[in-house]
Amino acid sequence: MEQPNKMTKITLNISGMHCSSCGKLIKMKLDKQPGVIRAEVDDVKKQARIDIDPSQTNIADIKNLINDFGYQSEEA
Fold first, then answer.
1. Residue 1: what pLDDT?
2. How far apart are CA 32 and CA 20, in angstroms?
3. Domains and CATH numbers, the chain
4. CA distances from 26 to 2, 30, 45 (A)
5. Rounded distance, CA 20 to CA 9, Å?
6. Is the pLDDT of residue 72 over 50?
7. What is the per-residue pLDDT for 5?
8. Which of 6, 11, 17, 58 could form a disulfide with 76 if both were Cys (CB 3.0 to 4.6 A apart)?
9. End-to-end Cα, the chain, rounded Å
10. pLDDT per residue over 7-45, tens digit each?
11. CA 2: distance to chain centroid?
12. Torsion sign (Cα): 11, 13, 14, 19
């Protein structure tokens, strides 16, 4: 029997996010990303907590997705 892939938890600090609309945009894009199991974006703390399936995506993909929208992200 094949073992299920282990979920990876990521916390990213996001700079350039200045309002709740920014957080909603990032969350919407993360939710559409294949391999993202769950995403929470906190525009007050300027952080994203993301659970991913590492067989479908990785930290670099997630950071690139966020950076493509003009924000800067780094691991917390």
1. 45
2. 19
3. 8-75 (3.30.70.100)
4. 33, 6, 14
5. 23
6. yes
7. 62
8. 11
9. 36
10. 999 999 999 998 999 999 999 999 999 999 999 999 999
11. 27
12. positive
Amino acid symbol at 44 = V
CB within 8 Å of 11: residues ≥ 6 apart: 47, 48, 49, 50, 75, 76
Regarding pTM above 0.85, the answer is: yes
Residues 51, 7: contact at Cβ < 8 Å? Answer: yes
DSSP state string for 12-42: EEEES--SHHHHHHHHHHHHHSTTEEEEEEE
Exposed e or buried b per residue across 36-60, where buried means at least 16 C-beta atoms within 10 angstroms of its C-beta: beebebebeebbbebebbeeebeee
Following CA atoms 32, 68, 60, 49 in sequence, which dihedral angle do they give, to the nearest 10 degrees? -60
